[in-house]
Amino acid sequence: QVQLVESGGGLVQAGESLRLSCAASGGIFRTYSVGWFRQAPGKEREFVGGISWRTLSTRYAGSVEGRFAISRDNAKNTVYLQMNSLEPEDTAVYYCAATSLATIVTVTTGYQYWGQGTQVTVSS
Questions:
Q1: Is residue 15 left, alpha or beta, with left meaning phi > 0 and alpha meaning psi from -120 to 50?
Q2: Chain centroid to CA 64
Q3: Band of the pLDDT at 34, cuts 50, 70, 90?
Q4: pLDDT band at residue 26 under the 50/70/90 scheme
Q5: Which residues contact 21 (CB under 8 A, 6 or more apart)?
């Protein structure tokens, strides 16, 4: 059983940056791929990006490509989502999720464990 806790959300202005953290406990975290998702009010939860546990490769949604970056520190059992050049459209609750699959999964059903989410609000 893996428990995930996100942190680092907040209120920022357009163009600024935030770094979200996803801290894990339980399980062997280095053998879990991690995905970041977000959900804005009235919208479906959508894939933002992910990192494979096996290859450490990353994949991003087109809307954040070039602005967001995911990294992981297995020694700290933590995955990070660095968000730069934030836009009002990035406003959402951000969730991290973990899967034992080695591939980067872009759908919510592929993940076994979820955090509680952290709010990111970008003002214009």
A1: left
A2: 12
A3: very high
A4: confident
A5: 6, 7, 8, 78, 79, 80, 81
Taking residues 59-63, what's their average pLDDT?
Answer: 98
Beta-carbon contacts of 23 under 8 Å, excluding residues fewer than 6 positions away, are: 4, 5, 6, 7, 76, 77, 78
Q: Per the structure block, which two tokens stand in for 92?
A: 């959402």
The phi and psi torsions of 74 (rounded to 5 degrees) equal: -65, -25
Classify burial at 82, counting beta carbons within 10 Å of its beta carbon; exposed 0-12, middle 13-18, buried 19 or more: middle
Q: Under a CB-based contact definition with an 8 Å cutoff, are residues 32 and 100 in contact?
A: yes
Contact 93, 38 (CB under 8 A): yes
Place of tokens 């955090």: 115
Each residue of 71-104: pLDDT tens digit? Answer: 999 999 999 999 999 999 999 999 999 999 999 9
